[in-house]
Amino acid sequence: MLGQIAQPLAYAEQLLQQFTRLSRLAGAERLPVALAEAAAQLSGCRLAQLYLLDSTHTRLTLTAEWLDGQLAEHETSLSSDYDGEQLLQYCLCQNRHLSLASLDPSLHETSFLPAAEKPWRSLLCLPLQDEQARVAGLLLVASSSTRDLDGFAASLASLGAFALAQHQLLQRLRAPKAAAPEAVSPALPSDYGLIGSSPAMRAVYQLLGKVLHNPVSVLLTGETGTGKELVARAIHDCGFRRSQAFIVQNCASLPESLLESELFGYRKGAFTGAERDRKGLFDAADGGTLFLDEIGDMPLALQAKLLRVLQEGEVRPLGSTATHRVDVRIVAATHRDLRSLVEQGRFREDLFYRLSHFPIELPPLRDRAEDILQLARHFADTASTFLQRDTCRWADTTLTHLAAYAFPGNVRELKGLVERAVLLCEGGELLPEHFALRRDSRPDDGCMNLRERMEQVERNLLLDCLRKNRGNQSQAARELGLPRRTLLYRMDRLSISPADV
Predict the structure, then answer these.
(1) Distance CA 431, CA 427 (A)
(2) What residue spans of 368-449 are helical by DSSP H?
(3) Cα(368)–Cα(201) distance, integer angstroms
(4) Among 139-153, 263-277, 457-471, which stretch is predicted with the lowest mean pLDDT?
């Protein structure tokens, strides 16, 4: 009896000693190795590994490895794209520890474990969370004997979380001294495959980093042409579901009956022409991501069914009385003001709050002027490669020409203009005449009197409102607080045609 009590007490004392030892370390670079050593000693395992995720959560690096009582030396840092390591990916994506008392190399992918004379027989892998409760790394121990290591999960997880917090704290304390010699702008966050280094895009990158490994739904807002689908794909490709399907559906492209069967599927005989069972997009995206573009145009009846999927994770196909569960991440997008649609009764309030749990607003191109030339060069190089032509040069006047344009169609308009210019370019140099930029016909600012200046301001205001409402004159008139006939009169007086919109 005394021996049974003494054993847990002895382990608790060892654990306390390791906490004390880690707390006394003054250097951030020593903590990973000390944690791996402590994990090996407490569990009595030959091997302990510590993996840390980078700031983008797309790269997992073996930071420390303790093997047979000593630090394992490597010529280079061992990096692992965790998408190929099923055991590591499971722990990261599910945020759950994994204990295998009988590790079978024929069943489990174990290439991340070092080669050894005796094969590895048991393994315990723990996700480590940072101060914001996000997965920041993995702590792993392995033994050459068949053992149940699950009993060490709680204590090692606590020790790992403590060491990780200490490590991050010491790094923050050292950061000002390390950054002082360089008075240059701070390092940019990852671009997640997107293009742009303006402050507006940096803010978007920071939001993306918060949501990649968080299962919440994301709502992308912004004007048409700002690249919402590209951002949705970046969330999928850089997140924990990237090995699964990424499905896209535009909610404005199908009538209500077709959109419902497309999303939820149907059973044989559900309607005329349903000759067999058909899975919907929710089933096709099971385990992955479903991108619902133009969510503001989804009919109200379908919004109720979508809310059910978001709340319960259940789908009921047309013609079926039974529901089944799906694991789908929803990324929705709209250029509309959903809050205004809620007030008008055209969008469900409960669905709005469910979708807007994590909103990301994409900036229009006019608010990220620093990115225009970078994007233009990228589109030109891509178009030249596609056409199997030499890369086009840019005339200085052309760059000035582009930088001064407002791009009401945003990145989509810029892409189309550049691709057309590359097709028209025959001399190897992109000139202003290759770009068909829309210009508002108005007198020179220096020659305008007060009346002409006021008309210019009014014309720009009407154009902006019409473009925001995609040419819908009734909607623009309501937003401006004008009768529709008054809006039409002013459009005629100011020479605003549908082509301008």
Answers:
(1) 10
(2) 372-386, 396-403, 410-424
(3) 8
(4) 457-471
Two tokens at 400?
């000035």
Q: How far apart are CA 121 and CA 144, in angstroms?
A: 5
Q: What is the DSSP letter of 241?
A: T
Domain 370-434, architecture per CATH: Orthogonal Bundle (1.10)
Write out the E strands in 135-196. 135-143
At 244, list the tokens.
């699964």
Q: Are 22 and 37 in contact (CB under 8 A)?
A: no
Scan for tokens 């992109």, then name that residue: 430
Q: How many CA atoms lie less than 13 Å away from 440 in the CB half-sphere?
A: 23
Secondary element (H or E) of residue 222: none
Cβ atoms of residues 139 and 156 within 8 Å: yes
Asked whether the beta carbons of 290 and 247 are under 8 A apart, the reply is yes
Say what the pLDDT of residue 485 is.
83
CATH code, 199-361: 3.40.50.300
- Contact indicator for 313, 321 with CB cutoff of 8 Å: no
132: DSSP letter: T
Q: Taking the mean position of all CA atoms in its chain, how far away is CA 84?
A: 20
Tokens of 401: 């020409």
Q: For residues 391-398, give the mean pLDDT.
A: 87
CATH class of domain segment(s) 11-176: alpha beta
Domain-by-domain residue ranges, the chain? 11-176, 199-361, 370-434, 445-493
User: Cα–Cα distance between 164 and 52 in angstroms, integer?
Assistant: 9
Whether the predicted pLDDT of 272 surpasses 90:
no
- Check residue 131 and give its pLDDT: 67
Q: What is the mean pLDDT of residues 56-61?
A: 69
- What is the spatial distance between Cα 288 and Cα 369, in angstroms, rounded to a whole number? 34
Strand partners, 250: 293
Sign of CA dihedral 68, 70, 71, 75: negative
For tokens 């722990």, the residue is 91
Higher pLDDT, 256 or 168: 256
Q: Where are the beta strands (DSSP E) in 348-499?
A: 359-361, 393-394, 429-430
Q: How far is CA 379 from CA 391, 407, 418, in A?
A: 11, 15, 6
How high is the pLDDT of residue 132? 61
Give 250's contacts (C-beta < 8 A, 6+ positions apart): 293, 294
What fold, for 445-493?
Arc Repressor Mutant, subunit A (1.10.10)
DSSP 371: G
Which is nearest to 347 in space by CA: 334, 360, 329? 334
